[in-house]
TrEMBL record:
SUPFAM superfamilies: Glyoxalase/Bleomycin resistance protein/Dihydroxybiphenyl dioxygenase
Classification via PANTHER family: FOSFOMYCIN RESISTANCE PROTEIN FOSX, LYASE, PUTATIVE-RELATED-RELATED
GO molecular function: metal ion binding
Name of this chain's protein: VOC domain-containing protein
Domain VOC, first and last residues per copy: 4-128
Pfam families linked to this entry: Glyoxalase (PF00903)
InterPro entries: Fosfomycin_Res_Enzymes (IPR051332), Glyas_Bleomycin-R_OHBP_Dase (IPR029068), Glyas_Fos-R_dOase_dom (IPR004360), VOC_core (IPR037523), YwkD-like_dom (IPR037478)
Domain of life from the UniProt record: Bacteria
Species, as recorded: Guptibacillus hwajinpoensis
Keyword tags: Metal-binding
Coiled coil start-end: none
Amino acid sequence: MFTKLHHVAIICSDYERSKSFYVNTLGLHQIEETYREERNSYKLDLGVGEHTRIELFSFPNAPERPSYPEAQGLRHLAFEVENLDEAVSVLVSKGINSLEKIRLDELTNKRFTFFADPDGLPIELYEK
């Protein structure tokens, strides 16, 4: 039935700040940006690899949602990386200071860490 994950949608509190974070800091590529005047809202399609997208939305007066890795609902967004140490170094060089200590997944023996986007959304880096 399902063939792949198509996209993850994120509503941000500050569109320009989040756009800069996902494009300039994380290096995702812009596919398409749309401004919908009737909604006073942006939608930015960002490419993650060849097959997955993140849809970044701005909505005026969107309510806050408590978010941390152990909250109910969507737990986190995870990106696979070839080399976790290199990925961490790149993020630190770009000013990401919220990186947690690197841990080992007891089930897969793979290394991972977490950091947060500008709105506190937990993002995981998971070593391939």
